[in-house]
Amino acid sequence: METLAVRSRWLSLAAxxxxxxxxxxxxxxxxxxxxxxxxxxGFTPSGxxxxxxxxxxxxxxxxxxxxxxxxxxxxxxxxxxxxxxxTVASVLCGLAWSPEVLLVSRFVQGVGGAVSSAVILGMIVxxxxxxxxxxxxxxxxxxxxxxxxxxxxxxxxxxxxxxxWHWIFLINVPIxxxxxxxxxxxxxxxxxxxxxxxxxxxxxxxVTSSLMLGVYTIVEVESHGWGSAHTLGFGALSVALLTGFxxxxxxxxxxxxxxxxxxxxxxxxANLVQVLLIAAMFGFQFLVVLYLQRVLGYDSMRxxxxxxxxxxxxxxxxxxxxxxxxxxxxxxxxxxAGLALILAGMVLLGRAPADAGFLADVxxxxxxxxxxxxxxxxxxxxxAMSDATPEDSGLTSGLVNTTAQVGGALGLSxxxxxxxxxxxxxxxxxxxxREALLGGYHFGFTIGAVLVAAALALSVALxxxxxx
Length: 468
Fold this sequence. Notes:
Elements lengths: L1 H40 L3 H4 L1 H24 L1 H20 L4 H19 L2 H8 L3 H32 L4 H4 L1 H15 L14 H19 L1 H4 L4 H23 L8 H4 L1 H31 L4 H7 L1 H13 L1 H8 L1 H19 L8 H27 L8 H36 L4 H29 L7
């Protein structure tokens, strides 16, 4: 019986990771296909950005609410519901015949992605209560999360060139159906604690509107600028709504987000570390591809292949070593070591020359970043979930996913804008375009290094309340 139970747990993890991979792939696979989508459906340049934004806004805005719904209604039920919505929306995206249909379908897809992914980490923690098994499971989950972006970039190019852009969405259908059937078969059902324990409708409206508005503000920064009335106004409104939500949670009899969760220094600190780390890594993924293409002259395929060392080293560490490291040394020391390696990689990229050789100048930085991220992320997720009770694990999982999305959106916007601004300044001062671009990317990598250094300092100060 014990062998059957162990086998069932790992099959459940496989189903959860398949759902995770499908959702993460969809966040990156679209980027490569955007020119083909624009040519086929007639998008304007400004409208094309909303193929991505229409997904990101509901995804980032609904994670916290979806995580709490998992605790109230049962995480398996919520996961399967989100997976079904995501799969159906993928069909509509693949069959879209106009910009309007695609944008609405992408919004629905973002809703399904948020609902299903918000509860996954909570289910993994519940499935694997034993520390060593949990560390292994988190290592597998971290690898799927981290490598999904690189796989998506390659898959998007292959599908778009060999078939058509429609297939970047339609490929989700067989994966989604198979994942749904496997999850329905192997995941343990649970009743949840009931809506009466946390059906805070006003709180749900406040936090969802605040997060959606915040993500919208961030993704529109590139169009309006950080100091514009649009950015400042909508940003202030998002903060006001979030403040109202926190006040409501302090007073509500059955709050959506019990503030005791944020009262845990370990959970709060780990989530703040994740915002800084994901911001730096998302910015790195965006800027390094531009550096490889626009400064070193790589084509899109070679640039994509150049990112593989990151994915391979993440897999080697997170699947092979991270569980043993976390079990032997504890999550905080392992997190500190991983962040130190990432910081070294960012510093190396900030010094890469305009005539860099891949083996001598680029590959070492990629390996530092991959090994560091593969080391840091399982430890960070273990810390972030360390104080989660069975009743709150879905909400804590949703919180972890929310901070990751906010960090990614912030990192992409901040580093991209700062790098572009620095490039424009150098170009206007008379530097050739290639040198100006290099200076902009160096500045972006330096800002990424500063973010990682701040995460490293915060991690050194973390004191876990207990071993997770």
